[in-house]
Amino acid sequence: MNFTGKRVLVTGGARRIGAAIVREFAQADAEVIVHCRASCKDAETLVASLPHRERHQILVADFARPGAAAELFRQAGRVDVLINNASLYHRSRLAEGDEADDREHFEVNFWSPLALMRLFAAQTSLAEGAVVNLLDQELGGPSPSGGVYAISRRALADATRAMARELGARNLRFNAVAPGPVLPPVGLESSRMVKTLPSVPLHRPVKVKDLVDAVLFLAGNDSATGEIMYLDGGQHLFIRE
User: Fold this and answer.
1) Which residues pair with 176 in a beta bridge?
2) Residue 225, SS3?
3) Cβ count near 209 (within 10 Å)
4) What's the pTM?
5) Does residue 94 sit within a domain?
6) Collapsing DSSP states into helix, strand and coil, what is residue 81?
7) Tens digits of residue pLDDT in 15-25
8) Regarding beta strands 7-10 and 172-179, do their DSSP bridges make them parallel or antiparallel, or are they unpaired?
9) Which domain holds residue 224?
10) Residue 181's pLDDT is what?
11) How far, in Å, CA of 116 to CA of 9, rounded?
């Protein structure tokens, strides 16, 4: 797929990994729709820095609210490429969770991306289209603190494969990237991930550019569908106890 003139929706696109993905698609001459929840100022600054900034737009939605993803998609208009990057993560053990938190995780991490994928597929005018879901190396096995977050990520991985199988005949492709440690969590930027990196065979974080390149590769490669690409320095190779 050539991205020139394609309309690309990036959820959670105002900051961090999402912003890097937005920049790369804009450099590839796409028209980018930047979704954000609370980072509107960041989104405005980002769009102002993009080439042909008049082509791009910002849409605001809180995916924790049922129905918000569908409203956002209707506002977006035609979408040729969907990047489901937005996510919610609270560190917790499954046995110690609570129902409200569990439902919020699934609303943001599964139900909203699924709603966007369904609406994407419902566009009858597309001659080709691509979805890339950002998952997590938690898919490789349950961690002690993954909790409902890890379960919601696995559900989206299953949905990615199912959609790829169902809609391949329409030239709609569905893939995912499962990254390992890339950037320190918000609020822990100075940690250098010293507790995490020893569990990574390559003993280093994933480069942001490597992750962004993988997203664009899967979005643009016309033969790739149903793929879950681990990009974690080999971290998924260890089965956790």
Assistant:
1) 133, 228
2) coil
3) 10
4) 0.93
5) yes
6) strand
7) 999 999 999 99
8) unpaired
9) 7-237
10) 86
11) 10
